[in-house]
Amino acid sequence: MASSSSSRTPTPPTWPASPRPNPSDRSIFDHHWHELLSSDDTIVRTIDLDGEPIGSIAAFEDEDSREIMFWTDKRFWGRGLTRSAVTRFLEDFPERPVTARVVVDNGGTLSILQALGFREIGRESSFSNVRAEVVEEIILQLD
Fold first, then answer.
1. Dihedrals φ, ψ of 25, to 5°?
2. 141 contact partners, CB below 8 Å, separation of at least 6
3. What residues contact residue 111 under an 8 Å CB cut-off, 6+ apart?
4. DSSP class of 40
């Protein structure tokens, strides 16, 4: 069963939202996580399966609401583990509204968020450091 606990972070090449121009640049990835973990406004949890870290969830203050982001190792996709962990995370932190941003071609993340009650409130084009291109993001909100 997936659970949330704090501490460990994913490896740089697979973290979709980390702000770095080169996905293999570990120092920039580490700097991003240091900033997240140093902020009193950020909540970070590890998604684990039988004690093995398989992903992470983070929530941080962004303008008018708390924004959530999450990642799960591809080996564990399609098992409901991410949805279960995000559900538990949202139960533990009931502050609303919560927003999320999803690149339009990320159907898995979009379906998880929609199943949990997030609704689309807008779209925005922005530069993705991971993809090194401008992407269209769907902005979702849970009230």
1. -85, 95
2. 65, 97, 98, 99, 100, 118, 119, 121
3. none
4. T
The rounded distance, in Å, linking the Cα atoms of 16 and 14 is: 6
pLDDT of residue 121: 97
Q: Which amino acid is at 103?
A: V
DSSP 3-state of 65 = strand
According to DSSP, the residues that pair with 43 across neighbouring strands are 59
- Position 68, amino acid: I
Q: What angle do CA 28, 24, 138 make, to 5 degrees?
A: 80
The answer to whether the bond into 97 is cis (omega within 30° of 0) is: yes
From 25-39, 70-84, 88-102, the region with the lowest mean pLDDT: 25-39
What's the whole-model pTM score? Answer: 0.75
Identify which of 56, 135, 53 has the alpha carbon closest to the alpha carbon of residue 101: 135
CB 141 within 8 A of CB 118: yes
CA separation for the pair 59, 94 (Å, rounded):
12
